[in-house]
Structure formats: structure tokens, C-alpha cells
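<instruction>
Derive C-alpha cells from the sequence
<data>
Labelled lines for chain and fold:
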Amino acid sequence: MEQIREYFEKTLKLTDRDWQIFSSKLIRKEFPKKHVLLALGQVEDSLSFIETGITRFYIPKEENDLTFAFVFDNNFVSGYDSFLTQTRSTYQIETLTKTTLWKLSHSDLQDIYKETDIGHAIGRQASEELFLKKSKRELSLLNETAEKRYLNLFAEQPHLIQHIPLKYIASYIGVTPQALSRIRKRIY
């Protein structure tokens, strides 16, 4: 839980009272590898912080799922569009490794907004992080080669990327597994 406070205190100063209210709403949960955190058609009710683990966002397809995001340790994870609008998700989120989350429900977040001085800043920081990652991903798809996207992913989390199956990485960078194999041969 202290990881979350440290995360916020990089840019915000939390009072002990605000932290007490916020942290009292967090629920720690552990999930096994390959656990679906958010199913297609389900409404997202949690904004979660990854203590440890890796998650994958994807659109299930008959032949090959379309992976469009990975989220690693010390980051927020949520089907945030579904969370904000309280509508059904059009994608799924699953764990790729054993994952420990600190979960905050939608209704508890609303209470934090009302009860604390810092609540809105905390919510804004979490939403800005999720927005910036989404924007970075979109720009990467428009401006970079698949090889560059692969190298960027590897640079971001070199110690964790080994836990992601290559077929998911290939889907994420927008190539076939065979094309990813050729990219990897050129690089290494």
C-alpha cells in the first residue's frame, strides 16, 4: 500500500487524514496468472493499482486476440472508459502473471472525492496517467515502425517483458508472430 502513497507523493502532498481516508477504501487482492479481471460486456467497477504483476488488454477474436495494452507494476489498471461511464466493456483485461492489486470501487472513489481535500487531485493524476499512456500508444501506432514499438516496449520493462508470450507482443506491435521473429533476429 505504501507504493501507492509514494506514487502520489511524487507530485502531490497527502495529509495523513487524506491518506487514511483513501487507504481505508483500498482492498488488496491477489489473482493467478491468466485470470480475467474484466470480461467482455462487464461494467468496470474498480480503479486498481498493480503492486506486482502484468496485465493485458485485448479484444477477443476467434483466431487471434487483438492485444492493445500491457500494464506493469506500480501503475494503475482499469477498463477506465467503462469505469467512468459505468457502461459495458468492449474488451477484456487479464493477468499475464500472478498479480496483486489494490482495488478502489467506483462508489468509494466518489466518497473520496467528497470526503478529502486531495481526492480530486488523486483522481485526476490517475486519469491523466491512463490518458497519457493511451495517447502514447496511439501516436506510436501512427508514427513508428513495428521494430521501434518492440524496442520501446522492451526499454520500458526489460525485466518483465520476458513474461509476456510472443504472440501477445506481436499483436501489440501490429505484426504476425513470424514478422516479430524476423524483427528479433535483426535486433539480436
Remarks:
- The radius of gyration is 17 Å.
- The chain has eight helices and eight strands.
